[in-house]
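RETRY 2/3 - previous attempt timed out on the joint model. Re-submitting the same 686-residue input unchanged.
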Amino acid sequence: MNIKTLSKLAGVSISTVSKVINGYADISEETRKRVQQVMQEHAYIPANSTKSSATNRSGLIGVVFAGKQNIDFSHSFFNEIMNTFKSQMGILGYDLVFFSNEKFQQSGETYLARCRHLQIEGCIILSGQDVEESVHELDQSPVPCIGIDLVLAGQNSSHILSDSHNNITKVVEHFYLLGYRELGYIGSNRDSEISSIREQGFRNAMQSYGLTIQEEWFAHGQDFYEESGYRAAKAMVERGSLPRAIFAGSDLLAIGAMRAFKKEAGCRIPEDIAIIGCDDIDACKYTSPPITTVAQNKAKIGRLAAMMLNDLIHNQMQTSSVTVETELIIRESCGSQIARIGL
Amino acid sequence: MNIKTLSKLAGVSISTVSKVINGYADISEETRKRVQQVMQEHAYIPANSTKSSATNRSGLIGVVFAGKQNIDFSHSFFNEIMNTFKSQMGILGYDLVFFSNEKFQQSGETYLARCRHLQIEGCIILSGQDVEESVHELDQSPVPCIGIDLVLAGQNSSHILSDSHNNITKVVEHFYLLGYRELGYIGSNRDSEISSIREQGFRNAMQSYGLTIQEEWFAHGQDFYEESGYRAAKAMVERGSLPRAIFAGSDLLAIGAMRAFKKEAGCRIPEDIAIIGCDDIDACKYTSPPITTVAQNKAKIGRLAAMMLNDLIHNQMQTSSVTVETELIIRESCGSQIARIGL
DNA sequence: CTGAAAGCGCTTACAG
DNA sequence: CTGAAAGCGCTTACAG
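RETRY 2/3 succeeded.
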């Protein structure tokens, strides 16, 4: 159904239909009613107007979740960044398009083609594992892009990295200042890039603090979830030797490990074993005890991404690479700083 | 910058530029290079093609969060529905547009105008408080809509409701079967519609079970968050009289209340006081003890919404109203069913 | 109040 | 391999 066919059905000219659609005042009430009636009957929705093509402003920002996995709105890192990103872009007058990557996997469609088709003005690209070729094409294209935890090299791309080197050092420093010297690590499976980076950073920081690494206190689960943390910690308990403090590669691993240490070894947290998690998910606030964790400033990352993208779109910025510091959120799973320093 | 100007800059015809853009094969490598070069330099992005207008398929679904608040990706009800909705729509070949309502508040723009402009094929509308006029206009329009917890009356609209009557009855039934007779409620502020519905449902269910309502065991916080639960429970402790079981209007209220009962009254959960929350947020699994809660089947709602919307778009369905049952997720905050039944 | 006509930015058979 | 020309669905001054 197009405007031409519809105008014939309504017995008026194309111009008149167009005016009804756009709410022009100079149309008689009778004509307006009739045209609207016919539009209703045929469920007619006008195609994208040339007007918008002319202004060349779609008001649309693309959201790309790079990698094989699909966007998961439940993922707290993702959704907290999107919260501030979306409200900031909203204030600037943009709506957000979330690309479905189910489609890209089947047909040969590319992100760039989608962006052009929809006249997307800029994209935010969130990093996952196994970034597709289509993302690189987008990076190299004229479409302004912001990468989150993803290095982008294109002429119209900038990126934001979280400072994972600095963050792990803080964990070891915190343990060290509280008097803990026997440190262990519980991570996801060894194939996970994020877990490996965190583990390597932890080992490096331990070495620079002159602490001895005991391999039996380094354990790995299947994934980042609670059950993996439980099993890894339980295995450590069964091996008969426990460190005084554990850094976990995710908060859920920390929660699972805590459950195992309590249940399988009767440990008190933090008196017998201290724990630090990573990610700062909500649940850490409500466990007993609440868990100290490494947090990324997701609200800041989202807001920064919005500002940088807007500047890129309006050519007010050179491409750039920004690093956002992480923070150690101190709760109760390592004991009081003051109390322990007395040791 | 349009295709005409660009073709002049590149010294070729409009047709040739168009072919380069669309990756046609019959262009010499040299010409292709030059055109791409010029496109890069001028950051040219083609406007929406007429081709897409012709096919009349944008492949776009609109997401509207009705009401004054903005979409909050951290909200677990919202984001878990969107998870399944998005992946289902993705399989069907659609991308999602999240409308920013910051904009609607300022300018006179309407959702319908945005939908038309972008040729949105259908919308999902998530209910909030104070639904705007613009949402009703969209409901009444030819754009197919699915309302979530929002009754839609339009000729091309269906909706999905969660069964809040049934859900509260289950709470009282569960308490009753475990032998608890002295029941209390902790809710959000009295102005909150959701909290009021839950409270009224709870009172009704208590009456139908012949239980006496004691007003001193009905308390209210400022909002749905943990601190409000803590304060409301603490106030109850200070008044000197506690029920044997508490239903909280949200999980965070339940978590806060639990903290207060433990800390301010030395209560054990569930031995001294049993608790049921509402919403089934992740944190409930990791508290001590894990909290029994009323869950909506969010995955099912999301998938249903996607299927119903797709059917509506393809005219394969009458408009309809579907109710999804809620479920009581039994964990440890009310004690073992078997143990208590012995009472 | 209505509509014929010129225009928007783009695509696509078709001729060379 | 390239481009002139007809076409897409729509908007908008302008004449009546």
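Residues 12-16, 19, 26-28, 31, 49-51, 53-54 of chain B lie near DNA strand D (CB under 10 Å from a C1'). Closing ticket.
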